Amino acid sequence: MQAATASASVLLVDDDPGFGRVMGEMARLCGCKLACAHALVGARASMATQNFDLILVDIRLRDGSGLDLLDDVELDRHGRIVIVTATPSVESALRVLRSPVVDYLVKPILADTLRQLLMDAREHAGARAAVARSAGIVGNAPCMHALLGDVAQVGPSDVSVLVHGESGTGKELVARALHAASGRGGAFVAVNCGALGQDLLGSLLFGHERGAFTGAVQPHAGYFEQAEGGTLFLDEITEMPHALQVYLLRIIETHALTRVGGTHETPVDVRVVAATNRDPEECVAAGTLRQDLYYRLSGFRLHTPALRERREDIPLLARHFLDGLNRRYDTAKRFARDVPVRLAEADWPGNVRELRHAVQRSYLLARAGSQIEFHAEAPPRVSTSKSSGDIRFTVGMSFEDVEREMLLKTLRCCDNNKSRAARILGITSKTIYNRLIRYRALGLVDDAVLRGVAASPGPA
After folding, report:
1. DSSP run (H or E) holding 54
2. Is the pTM of this model over 0.85?
């Protein structure tokens, strides 16, 4: 596919219906796919499940400032980001100017300007498609050669695949490589089953009809229908409720689905790739993954190796991430001479994701024309004091570190009562237990913490 004919994915975060209609018509004329979000909550949900070639964000939204989204954007995931506003201010302009990722436009925006933004998005989509066709997996270690060989072998088939490996090892990248190798013409749709509310997951996956529940004012095509002719990637499959696992199994076996609140069965041609950061057989034994679904998903199993199993790839990966940042922002920053060796010697419990964030953070902190240094950071520690409800975060901590500290401190303040902690955090007790299982596997908590939570009073 040539860059000029690539279809770009564009996200508009704006609650102005007039501007939305203009953007919809412009996107149609330019051959772009437009998704709309009217508030921060919808924008974050869209950005968590899809990569966009262009994101336009209004500052004034019904649930906060669009500028807050800048803190949620991973530099290397999305394309161009544009802040649009009808009420410009010096404060907002300065904040945007300090960021390397966005442009700042004042409404009304000229049609030629919007058209150029959309055409640039199509160019970005073309480059992204080229990367997808070449798999985009970086690594020369023997275990990576074996993994790529398996991807090439199973990719052209339509068999379901189960990918397992530690958090941050690139399971979604492997799923994208499988899709690129499949030759399927439909979309690649990624869904994190652990990041979506379980009461909405069924509707989001399988779609719903108008009136199926309160707020369902129009029919909605779920992720399965959006992935028609392509690949549906279900990350954290063990977080899916058992009732939905039963329905998922039926869809995989019958190649047909019925929307929530509907009666009509719709044929679907979708390849399913699932992933988990836990041992699948242990999940079956623990009852978090149905045995029949496990066997159906395990038409082929792939394992993504941890970074400690491929240390020789660490300098290569670091340079790959740095090269990408230099290309994106037209810079020529480089590592100091000893940095690649020091990176290879460091511990990376968060695997490739943690390494990527470390390179990105070092890139942003380095001044133009200076070499990038690297200083190993001690893992964040959670205070053992129960007398204070305060939680301290430091600049440079990853989102996973912040989440872990918040969870462990909340548990400590609740005397390890997982039910009470879950209510405070707005999540389920099962999610807390699954997070602790992962932290134990990474060596971040000991068995005593896990036993204390598992045995805590209150319903699960």
Report:
1. strand 54-58
2. no
